[in-house]
Protein: Helix-turn-helix domain-containing protein
Organism: Alsobacter sp. KACC 23698
Amino acid sequence: MLDRKGAKTATGSKEPAAKADRARDDAREAAGRSFLVVNPERQFDVIRGLASPVRVRILRLLRRSGALNVNQIAEKLGLPQSTIATNIQILEESELILTDMAKAAKGQQKICSARFDEIVVRLDADDPSRDKNVIEVEMPLGLYTSYDVSAPCGMCSTQSIMGVLDVPDLFLDPCRVQAALIWFGRGFVEYKFPNNAKVLKADLAEIEFQMELSSEVPGTNTNWPSDISLWVNGVKAGTWTCPGDYGDRRGALTPRWWKLEGSQYGVLTRWRITPSGSFMNDQKLSDVSLADLSLSDHHSIRLRVGIEPSASHPGGVNIFGRGFGNHNQDILMRLHLRPREAR
C-alpha cells in the first residue's frame, strides 16, 4: 500500500514486537558507542588490519557477541584455529581489538574483545585547502541522541522506508544510522557534537550549523509554512519560517523509488551564532550570542532541531541527509576559531 508520503510502506507483519524492545536497548547504549577515525596515511597498520574478509568477520563477531577466546571464534566462524590465531595477531598489532590472558583448563587462553563500534576512514584528513581555523564535523542524520516526535513521522534510507511509519517509538531503531531523510509533525531531534574547540583550548569566533530542511505535510505543498526552531546547549537561537514542503520536481539526489508525491528537497539552511547574534542565511533571528551558549563549560555541543508546541505555524519538518534532496550532506557543524594572532 502507499503511505502518506507517496511511497510503499513496510507492513506490520515484518516488524516483530521484540524489535522495538531491542531498539530501545540499543538506543540506551548509543551514548557509549566508540568511534575510530583513521588517517590512512598515518595509520596504514589499521588499514592493513581491516584488509581481510576474515578479520572483518572477526571484528563483527566480537562486536555482536562480546569477548570470546580463540577457540570460540574459530568455532563460530567455522575456520581453523590456526587461521584465527594468525588474524588475531594482526588485529592486535593494528590495535583494533583488546586481548587479555585468562586461566583455562590447560594453561592459559587469550580472550579477545572489540575496541570500536564504528571505524571511519578520512580521505580528506590532510587536505591543505581546508581552512585551519575551521573545524568541521558532519553528523549522520540518524545519530540523534534524544528525540520526542509526533505523527506524521518516519524515516528512510536511500534504499527503502525504515520500519513502520507514524510510530514515534520506532525512532529508536538502531538502523536509524542509515537514515537519509527524517520527518515529523511536531517535536524535536537532538544531536551531540564533540566540542573540539574546548579540547584545543581555542577561542571561537562563531559556530555554524548547515542542513537541508523543508516543512512536512501529507503529500507535498509548496505553500505550507512551518516555524522550525534551533537550540544549542538548551538555548534557543531562533526560529525560521520555512515556506513549504517541496514536491514540484524531483530532488537532484532523491532516489527514483521515492515517489514524486513525497517530499523531494528542501532549503539549504545555514544557522550561525556569533558574538553579535544568531542568523539563518544572513537573516538575523535573535540577539542570542556565543556568550549565551557557555560552550567552554561543556565537552559536547547539543544541537536540537524541531517545532515548538506554541509555534504559530506548526507545519512539521523534513531533514534531508546524504542521498536525498539537493545537497549531498548530513548535518554539518563548523567551529570557526579565532586566528592565534588574534587571540
User: Anything to note?
Assistant: Confidence is low (pLDDT under 50) at residues 7-32. The radius of gyration is 23 Å. Residues 12-29+126-342 form a domain with the Jelly Rolls fold (CATH 2.60.120.260). The CA atoms of residues 215 and 234 lie 23 Å apart.
